[in-house]
Design a protein that fits this description.
By secondary structure, the chain is α+β, with helices and mostly antiparallel strands. Helices cover 24% and strands 21% of the residues. The chain contains seven helices and twelve strands. The two termini are 27 Å apart.
Length: 287
């Protein structure tokens, strides 16, 4: 599943290419999206913005008028990538990096074609209903938002006192943006066992996790790393001084810890049995 920084950077790149431009083509294999397009065309509308909220990508379209003269309301296309979805952006005539059969949504302007490949979740929302949308309303503080509320995130962590900290970090209702890679990396950076329950952690431990998660995500959306590309696969690193050593623990099962040399552990526990990587020595108290 893409991490919050990947969605943020995808949204920013799409926004740079599409915002302020008129839609010339809209296609979707999702019947509900196509039906709205038939009743109140997306073509002719202006793309007002593309933003990220946690792991949700939100593409906002202006209101329009139907042929019958009825006003079409402003709409927002909400997509969620889950495990395999991605947004690509191309200039007209540029070869695609994925086959046409993987297209789920296509939005084109005079200059660019934005293609959503293998996106499993896509729906139209009316702009005025955004604040009432169940999934968006229940998101925790967005780690990449300027208005990020660390105190709120801390309180939400404490409220889940009997859960393992690894599961809590992945819970988007606690903080929005952390995925499986950052879960392992942040826990290692703060020397916290992935499997310890929240009530066993001190306030400083939780504050370290919150601060580090925000720092790492923000580091990976730095303007200098986000040049316009045709593919939304962006470099992620939690060791920015040495790009050849990109991650401390994630994906390094059995390899020596970069701090102490202990073989990195791997396990599947907790909600959805997601893979967790950790150093048994640096993150003591794992069991």
């Amino acid at each position: 599943m893409p991490e919050g920084d990947t969605i943020f950077r995808a949204a920013r790149t799409l926004n740079r290419a599409l915002a302020g431009h008129v839609v010339t083509t809209f296609e979707s294999v999702f019947p509900r999206l196509a039906r709205v397009h038939e009743d109140s065309p997306i073509t002719g509308r202006t793309i007002e913005s593309v933003t990220a909220r946690g792991k949700h990508l939100l593409m906002s379209f202006s209101a329009s008028s139907t042929p019958a003269g009825r006003s079409g309301q402003a709409l927002v296309l909400r997509t969620h990538m889950r495990m395999n979805g991605s947004w690509h952006i191309y200039r007209h005539g540029e070869p695609w990096q994925r086959p046409r059969r993987d297209v789920r949504v296509l939005v084109a302007t005079a200059d660019f074609v934005a293609v959503g490949f293998n996106i499993p979740v896509a729906e139209w929302l009316k702009s005025r209903e955004m604040d009432r949308h169940e999934e968006l309303r229940r998101l925790g503080p967005d780690l990449l938002a300027e208005s990020f509320d660390a105190a709120d995130a801390f309180a939400r962590m404490r409220a889940r006192s009997q859960e393992s900290i690894a599961d809590v970090l992945l819970n988007q209702r606690v903080m929005a943006g952390v995925g499986n890679v950052y879960k392992s990396e942040v826990l290692f950076a703060c020397r916290v066992s992935p499997f310890v329950e929240v009530h066993r952690l001190g306030d400083d431990d939780l504050k370290c996790l919150i601060t580090t998660a925000r720092k790492l995500l923000k580091a990976n959306v730095t303007e200098g790393l986000a040049a316009m590309t045709t593919y939304m696969g962006f470099r992620r690193t939690t060791r920015r001084d040495n790009p050849s050593e990109r991650l401390w623990v994630y994906g390094r099962a059995g390899e020596p810890c970069r701090r102490c040399g202990t073989p990195i552990g791997i396990d599947k526990r907790g909600r959805d049995a997601r893979l967790t990587y950790w150093c048994p020595a640096c993150q003591s108290g794992a069991d």
